[in-house]
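Entry 14. Structure prediction run on the chain below.
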Amino acid sequence: MRDLIATIDAWRARGDAIALATVVKTGGATPRPIGAKMIVNARGEFAGSVSGGCVEGAVIEEAQRVIKTGKPKLLKYGIANETAWEVGLSCGGMIEVWLEVQGSKFKVGAEDWLDTITRAIESDELCATATIVNGANVGAKMIVYADDRASGDLGDAALNTDVARDAQNAMQRESPENRVYGDAEIFIDVFAPKPNLVIIGGVHTAIPLTQFAQALGFHVTIVDGRARFASRERFPTADEIIVEWPQDALARIKIDASTYIAILTHDPKFDLPALAALSQMTPPRYIGAMGSRATRAQHFAQLRAQGVPEEFLSRVHGPIGLNLGARTPEEIALAIIAEMVAVRHGTQGGKMKDKGEKMKDKR
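Output returned:
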């Protein structure tokens, strides 16, 4: 959604009506996950993707009808649907796409839902929307914020309460989900702030790690007490460079569930104060520390002696990164960012082939 805001603003400026298409359910092999989005205007122009090209043409046609009627619609394409082949969904999967139009009768508070969502994204405010996509009161919507505020109405007080609770859990995971409450099917979508990566130690591996992370949309901060390591010459694209000892820098950096920490120094003068400081803060999404297993064991023993809780130490990924057999700084950086992506999406990493074999076994 963040990538579509500039186009939304441009279309609005010239007065175009806009439909938003969102993948709300998938099954089998599908190119795009739930939450994937595409916008369509009354001219037939579009941006974004809901299937990597398979069903876009059909969705664009349906979007024209939704724009004219103002009524939202749930589209279904799948294995048992002969139109799957007609629209190009030949990969053997199933996809459901929710279509809704800007300016519909469903508001969140006093404003249009699209205005509320875009403003939250632009201000990096974590929020979730809950929309009835099937059942009574189809199209009703509410927005829930991380501080427990909520606006909008799904038509039932008890339902509002249950959905708001589940939306909080979805925000913690930064993961959209499709849930059923009685006769109502509700899609909970999550709009998370841009993730922040704090790299402690301006070592060589930090250079490609910065580049990989920024390519994936991370805001990157370099922290190092040594000015010659934390410099613009070494990190020309870093969003922020802080020349301070880790414990001092961390005290003034916002740490939350969208924060990822990579400690790359494997030096106790940096590692131990950084980990001790982090143990007293709001838990970040990810903490990884470079160093061998022997080094990690030694450092953890020292931290335990300082009173750092075992529960905190168990969340530290060390040695950092997925096991890719990495040797060069670039390969190590790839292993680190791969582990962060796995954590972000709640997986362990591993081969897609193995995932396929596990799915076969379950069948």
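The chain has three domains: 1-104, 105-193, 196-344.
Filed with the rest of this week's runs.
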